Amino acid sequence: MKKNHVLNWTLFILQLIFAYSIEAQEQLRPSKADKPPIIDGKLDDSIWQNTLSVSEFKTFAPDYGKDGTERTIGYAAYDGENLYFAFRCYDREPAKIKSSVSSRDNIRSDDWVCINLDSFNDHQSLYAFYVNPLGIQTDSRFAAGQEDFSADFVWYSAGQLTPDGYNIEISIPLKSIRYAGGNPVMMSIFFERFISRFSEHDSYPELDPAKGMAFLTQMSPLIYDELKQSTLFELLPAFTYSQKYNLNQSQLVKYEDKGDLSLTAKYGITSDLILDGTYNPDFSQIEADAGQVDVNLRYALYYPEKRPFFLEGNEIYNLAATQSSEVDPIRSIVHTRTIVNPLTGIKLSGKIGAKSTIAAMYAMDELPQDESIINGDYAHIPILRFKQALSADSYLGGIFTGREMKNSYNNVLGIDGNIRLTEASTIEWNGLYSNSKFATGSDKIGGHALGFNYNYDSRDLFYDFSVKDVSEDFNVETGFITRTGIFGLTGLIRPKIYPESSIIQRIDLEAFSAQINDKPSSLWETSNNLSVTSFFLGSYNARVKYSYSTEIFGGKKFTTGRLQFILGGLISNQISFSVGYKRTNAIYYSQNPFQGYSHQINAIMVYQISENVESYTSFVFSDFYRESNSELIYEYPIFRERLTYQHNKYLFFRGVVEYNKYKRQLLTDFLVSFTYVPGTVIHLGYGSLYQKTDWNQYENRYTGSQNFNEVNRGFFFKMSYLWRN
Question: Are 187 and 222 in contact (CB under 8 A)?
């Protein structure tokens, strides 16, 4: 009992010490529309003449608190089914507005506006709805300091260029978002505008320079009277069909010819609590992933989640004090791409009461044949996440993940939290324990991970300190972790300078240091970076970075320092580019590792040939030399060209050509895609893989060739329809 009293008093005192009062923002009350506006970008509906409007937009990038270069007016309204928003974006040089008829989620380099909506007004997460001047959409979810652009919501938008700028109209169905019950319903909002040629972000309300980018605590309350409490029922059936061919000696032979059905259902128990279920969730990949250098890797490459069932509430699984620095090995505890071939799943996510958030999921994953011999046919994956909101954007949370098979299992239990200390500073922490049993052994193995992070962010200064301890036996089969068996201390400081210059808008100086103990070898490694980043001539940025670092691998210490240059910007409305070069002391990762050095180049050019046609060209290059004698070990260049014709916001035609010199491969990929809303789609694709190889019938094997021959061919069709009551 005494221990409980001590704990309660400790928590109470911590709250008194850490809590701070958020300055009261102006409360916004949108008008209720008698007649819904037509979403056409014209702003000629009567509701926009008599509803809430805001116009005091101020900059927060590249600097804070200045009047926006161009005038902006934001509007808000609603009715029984939808929330409505609009923007009137003035521009004295309308010919310089950057916009294109593009595919969904491909507008971040354009001019755009954004509605950032905290639908619970609890400072824990938000929806972000981006729209470019022609009405093309991007959306995301933000929570625990991380923005997830894989989210896709059903909402509607239109844009129209005008002689003095452009207009935007947005309609967000209440069934597409989660919000609290009661009357009135309080949300909060952050109107945002981006002007690409100045790299300028404007907002209402104005961000306080002393609070930095802590925008969750600076949003304006948005009050809706008599908002309809909407419940939701959705069905998403999908059909996919594919044919695949492989080269067999000198002929292409069909090895797959199959169709597949899947069904995902969603039911809104309340307006803020959603139940999802799925059978055979669709994971048809509509376009080949861009090539990455996949040789000489210490850990696997990361690929994002795309399946609709797993995206609902995915941001709730974000854990505090993960991804806390560039050397943090814990990227995520829940990475649902580890559920490779799910047969079925069920999930509950949303709010329980005003302050409590829950995400509970179960999935049954069908194991590949070679693994099923040992571990049975299926892996059972339960995941449970709980968060309790505190004052401001602070919270306490807990998580459990599991992967259970016939002869093995992995369970992880942990707690995490975020406490806002002052207007500009927070502490984050987590503690995780894993318990595993492997099919190859009878002993249970336990491990732990502990993380602590402190950061301060204001207009003039950002600094960050973290502590990380991960035991050798820590294991998370549901997550993405690059390394175990380390203890690390990191520190970063970034002063920001704002010259009184028409050429240079901002200069960021950065110093970073990490000291890491490699537990298996008991050796220490270090990473120390100095960099200068300059934002100049409106849209350009350049960075120079020098690093002195070492890395432990295979019980040996290697040098891994580097010198890096990056330059990017917007040359014109039609052309943008980014190019980076890095010279690195590097390790050749193998059973017999050795010291080497490498050169790496990453270059991208985007050319908007017309309003509807875009060329996206990329080049990736990496090589590796043995240090002792400068012997070339490998050279890995990848060239990729993606040409897209976007007929309208729904329909596009795309062709991709990628040449991988290291693998002696040429990939071609063609896609026709129609997306009415996320879920209601038709995709038709065809791809081929060519390789410089020939079948040698005399040696009964494939040998190198100077000519490309087709070794793989694939065709697929996908059709799905989102039905919503």
Answer: yes
Q: Which of 126, 146, 128, 148 lies closest to 137, judged by CA?
A: 128
pLDDT at 18: 41
User: Residue 437 phi/psi, 5° resolution?
Assistant: -135, 130
With contact defined as beta carbons under 8 Å apart, do 466 and 451 qualify? yes
Domain that holds residue 220: 25-224
pLDDT of residue 21: 39
Q: Which single residue is written with the structure tokens 């850990």?
A: 299
| Same structural domain, 159 and 187 | yes
What would the DSSP string read from start to end of 539-595?
A: TEEEEEEEEEEEEEETTEEEE--EEEEEEEEESSSSEEEEEEEEEEEEEE-SSS-EE
Q: Work out whether strand 342-352 and strand 356-366 pair parallel, antiparallel, or are unpaired.
A: antiparallel
Asked if residue 205 has a cis previous peptide bond (ω within 30° of 0), the answer is yes
* Eight-state DSSP code of residue 414: E
pTM: 0.89
145's torsion region: left (phi>0), alpha (psi -120 to 50) or beta?
Answer: left
pLDDT on residue 14: 44
In this structure, is residue 501 part of a structural domain?
A: no
Which pLDDT does position 518 carry in this prediction? 97
Task: Report residue 335 CA to chain centroid gap.
Answer: 12
Q: What angle do CA 334, 150, 213 make, to 5 degrees?
A: 85
- Secondary structure of residue 185 in the 3-state scheme: strand
Asked if residue 2 is part of any domain, the answer here is no
User: Looking at residue 2, what is its pLDDT?
Assistant: 45
| Residues 464 and 492: beta-carbon distance below 8 Å | yes
Instruction: Report if residue 694 sits inside a domain.
Output: yes
Quick one: three-class SS letters along 595-622?
Answer: EEEEEEEEEEEEEECCCCEEEEEEEEEE
DSSP state of 309: H
Clarify whether residues 186 and 167 are in a common domain.
Answer: yes
Q: Kindly state whether residues 210 and 95 are assigned to the same domain.
A: yes
Q: Is residue 538 part of a domain?
A: no
Helices (H), 406-463: none
Q: Can you read off the two tokens belonging to residue 196? A: 């690409």
Q: What pLDDT is recorded for position 6? A: 44
Residues in the chain predicted with pLDDT less than 50, given as ranges, are: 1-4, 6-24
The residue written with tokens 């709730």 in the block is 316
pLDDT at 177: 94
Q: What Å distances lie between residue 238 and 49, 93, 280, 492, 680, CA to CA?
A: 43, 46, 10, 47, 9
Which long-range contacts does 584-589 make (Cβ < 8 Å, 24+ apart)?
584/560, 585/558, 585/559, 585/560, 585/561, 585/627, 586/296, 586/558, 586/560, 586/624, 587/298, 587/551, 587/553, 587/558, 587/560, 588/296, 588/624, 588/626, 588/633, 589/296, 589/297, 589/298, 589/553
pLDDT of residue 546: 98
